[in-house]
Amino acid sequence: MKLEGGCACGAVRFVAEGTPWRVGLCHCMTCRKLGGSVFNAFAIYPRAAVRMTGTTAIWRSSERGRQHFCPACGGQVFALDAGGDEAELPLGAFDEPDRFRPTYEGFVGRRESWLPPLPGVRQYAGNREGPGRTEPGTTE
Ligand SMILES: [Zn+2]
Ligand SMILES: [Zn+2]
Question: How many whole angstroms from 70 Cα to the centroid of ligand 2?
């Protein structure tokens, strides 16, 4: 599977190959503030499976590594973890909608009261705590 995406204005683009290690939602304050939305939905790929083009602005944070934005439109296009082997791509940045289904939610205590939990997915009080890179039901 090869999927493409990018920012709103098109100056920053990515191509992701293969299957993501995992797909999740995060309700933490950093994700909320970064996107200006009430949660972040994302796919985590091996860093080597994603190619990026275009110039980005970067915000470094201790918990999220490096967050790359388009300096022209402000769109979040990808984040690279501090260890360097994971690339986080926001689901909304993919060109085709509805390609992924989250299998876990993080920081559920921050979930908006009007927003129900996703049925049948793992709920974490904080960050995901799974062993390994994948969630049950996904393949590496
Ligand atoms: Zn842009
Ligand atoms: Zn978060």
Answer: 20
